[in-house]
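Posting here for the record, re: uracil.
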Amino acid sequence: MQAVALEGRGDLAEWRDAARALAMAGVGPQEVDWRMAGAASLFDAAAPLPPATRPPPRVPRAFLDLAESVVCHADPGRFALLYRLLVRLQDDPALLSMPADADVVAAARLATSVRRDCHKMTAFVRFRETAGEGGRRRFLAWFEPDHHIVALKAPFFARRFADMDWMILTPRGSAAFEDGVLSVSRDPAAKPVLDDPTDALWLTYYAAIFNPARVKPGAMRAEMPKKYWKNLPEAALIPQLVAQAPARVAAMAAQAALPPPAHHARIQARRQASALAAPPAPESLAAVREAARNCTRCALHCTATQTVFGEGPDRAALMIVGEQPGDREDLAGRPFVGAAGAVLDRALATAGIDRAQAYLTNAVKHFKHEPRGKRRLHATPNAHEVAQCRWWLRQEIALVQPRVVVAMGATAVLALTGQASRLADIRGRLSPFDPGRALLVTTHPAHLLRLPDARRAAAQTARFEAELAQAQRAAQVLPA
Ligand code: URA
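Prediction output follows.
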């Protein structure tokens, strides 16, 4: 039996040198008694190492990465496990890719536990400022890792806290960073007295950013196991903060339901009045169109490319009102030039209407949309946006003087009548609108595009065309 005594404090080179010598001497895994330096061995009368008869062992890079973590684990069996893997790898270089192998599983489990410990160290080391010399500030931290990870994690802290001097002391070694030089000791350190007047500041900050509405005690316990609490100043606050959370959330909800202070209503009323106050009506369609380019009556102008105003003759017997410009119209600056526009164009042609003779416009003049990746998806304008844009529509009607106005879809109906009506109840009938003017409600061409059933789509399209023709006939016969 070969007895090998190691310091065993996470130093891969120490294990690697011993393992290489054993492997070259042809010593099998069962013939090695791995133990910690200073610990008694059952095999004190162990034989001296036989001479090397074999070439140095070869291992894949993945084994060294694995061993670097495993060797930091506190499990006393880690050296024997690594040596078994090393010997087996000589005959089976693909061993590590066998996820069901008991040794591979055991090593992976140890490595995971070390990685978790490393993560906790980066999350839970709390530095306290101590008296320093010279220009650099000096900090001290105490941490209690489960494994021998100080040397492994020290470079991380050196990178993160390069502008200060610090020491991290642990029962499994310590790391110091002074004037840009990192040094690591694997000797156990004693817990220092840590007293920092800025702790109070940290606790105040922690309590202030603690969000009672997002408390998840289970997740907190899993992320911050109890054993770390004693070295985390904020841990003393947490039970109290968690206990108060429901009451604070209830208070927040109650607060939100309170009516705003009286001056809020006055300010809102003043703002609304000035926003709604109709500017003097421009005298020509061209002037209205120009004014609408700078419209900020609702927030849609912020995200749209441009105002898409109506187009057509200055005077037209037939006005056709849609909902709002789509993606294509927003870019082109003209109404009905996209897919719905193509449906409308075909229907107009079938109905015997010359598009150039009708006035085409929309209830809302800016494209409302929601981003989805690179696409801009149509979003229906709300009642406020429709109401704000009605001012422009009324200007268009007043100037164009149509005899018949066709409302295509519910948004156009809302804009023209102020009523949110069911389309099916009012569709296809000419009804009086302004004095000497009639309204005809029909469907929106985009609706026809969305009908999945071809027969229904054909029937609805025919009805749409018939309703447009009906409007056209009325526009020709109604007195001007
Ligand atoms: N849909 C509308 O309502 N108007 C357009 O201009 C384009 C599509």
